Amino acid sequence: MRASVREHEQPKYIGRKGYATQNIMAACDFNMCFTFIWAGWEVTAHDTIIFNEALRRPEVKFSIPTREKYYVIDAGYPNTRGYLAPYKGTDIRYHLPDFCHRRTAAIRAPRGY
């Protein structure tokens, strides 16, 4: 997302597109309603840094799941207690178009753990 920053701070906000952008961490519920948004991070900040800061700083009020619950998170975040990111193994197909490229239902069926 585009950002408006002071000229002396712009280098850390310049993204792939060549203009100032910001990294935004957002969470939503099963109704696709936002429950948390934290904007303003420079584009050079990795998702893991933002995630760990949200966990570390209670004043931002990032939701922490109860002991027996897990939140499904983006692959850019680390797997940790209460937060479950997709498995990043080889030959894993998560998207429906990946399954459609095969010819028979038996070949398209998920395999492995």
UniProtKB/TrEMBL annotation:
Record's keyword annotation contains Nucleus: yes
Co-factor requirement: a divalent metal cation
Record flagged with keyword Nucleus: yes
Subcellular location: Nucleus
PROSITE patterns for this protein: PROKAR_LIPOPROTEIN (PS51257)
Keywords: Hydrolase, Metal-binding, Nuclease, Nucleus
Record domain DDE Tnp4: where: 6-91
Primary location recorded for the protein, binned into one broad class: nucleus
Family: Belongs to the HARBI1 family.
Name of the protein: Nuclease HARBI1
Organism: Tanacetum coccineum
Upper lineage: Eukaryota, Viridiplantae, Streptophyta, Embryophyta, Tracheophyta
